[in-house]
Amino acid sequence: MGQKLQSDNILAQKARFWYDISVNQGFAIDKHADVRTIAGNLRTLQRGLTGDRARIASGYMDGQSSLQAYLLYYWAVSFFEAMMILAELDARDQLPEIHAVLDVGSGPGPASFTANVFGARKAFLVDKSEKALAAASRMSASAAGRENADFEADFEIMTRRDELEDFRVPAGETFDLIVASHSLNELWQGAPDWLERRRDFVLRLLPALRSGGLLLIVEPSAHYTSIPLLALRDALLSAQTQETTLACVGPCPHSESCPMLALEGRPCFSEWPWEAPPLVTELANSAGLDRTSLKAAWVALRKAPPEERRTVPRTPAGPGSIRGRIVSEPMRNKAGRIRYIVCTGEGLLRTTSAPQDDAAARSLGFFRLARGDLIEADGLETRSENHLGLGRETHMRIVMHAPRV
Q: CB within 8 A of 3, min separation 6: which ones?
């Protein structure tokens, strides 16, 4: 497990390499379009995807202006979101060696090119847009043979134009990573049995996932996409068979039912501060979009033998102890305490807090915690049934800071 032999510098070089190629492909679509025109097209695309959602599942990438706006803006967003997710899985030692990728609902393949940054050498992209798939193929072809002192840019891209609802993996094909990035939320929208259909669609893919391989589903952080993803997560984990067993390896620290679903209307997502490339910032500003961070809801499930379903010991952390992942922003209550919500390894939600002027908490790094960080703490004071406070005997360890772009 793990791809930690690659330095951060090499990863950054690879990321920049593919981002530059995506920009070149975007401008090649219409060499005469200026940034203001592209920003106008981006605004229209954004409203159709996240406003009235009229463009969802509409084949919008077959339009020249939409595909260009996507390549110059949303491609980078999706690419770097996947970068942060794979980097977190790597930091948690949950990233397998990736050689082959199946990318369903791929568009021009930002998630696949991210997988290449982490070692993938070939990808099979499936999408309904022939023009989006062609753009991905051109990107791969333009990189082939380029000399680079630090890495090989050759990346084999295979494509299939298909409606996702009808897609079946070709016989004999197997993959280390199956990814669906910003695509499953578009399937069976409005159907009363949307959850069962999405679950069954994913289960059809799993025989092609190698043992130890990852299923990664990424969706926008909005309520109407992130909450259904949590429901899909639970449905997949409940659909265990002798042949297909899944364990949740991220972002959750457990494979139990999602406790966030019990809190009506509360999503769960990751957020990463982001110094976006200048072109992305310029387009965002011109289109009136906020792009100071990356946000995404995601679930990573590992194909595992049945006995390995649970990824953490089921023994409770014990009185005064907490092990888990920060799933909120820091919150200040009326008493002046800074509080975080923690999703624990037992599949429960607890909160932990400290007075905002507490020097001991500051020295432990408590006030520097952010959404996505993993912590362990002992010697906490019980303040209510599910709330623990830092005290004089507290020992806290930050197991992992969420990756930063």
A: 90, 95, 97, 98, 118, 119
Residues in the chain: 405
* Pair of tokens at residue 241: 């068979």
Token pair, residue 321, equals 């102890």
Side chain identity at 372, as an amino acid letter?
Answer: G
The set of residues, in sequence order, having a beta carbon less than 8 Å from that of 55 and lying 6+ positions away, is 45, 48, 49, 66
Nearest in space to 340 (alpha carbons), one of 390, 395, 379, 265: 390
Per-residue burial over 100-125, b = 16 or more CB atoms within 10 Å of its CB, e = otherwise: bbbbbbbbbbbbbbbbbbbbbebbbb
Of 173, 234, 238, 165, residue with least CA distance to 206: 173
| pLDDT single digits (tens) 30-85 | 988 999 999 999 999 988 777 656 666 657 888 999 999 999 999 999 999 999 99
- For 375-386, b where at least 16 C-beta lie within 10 A, e where not — what string? bebbebeeeeee
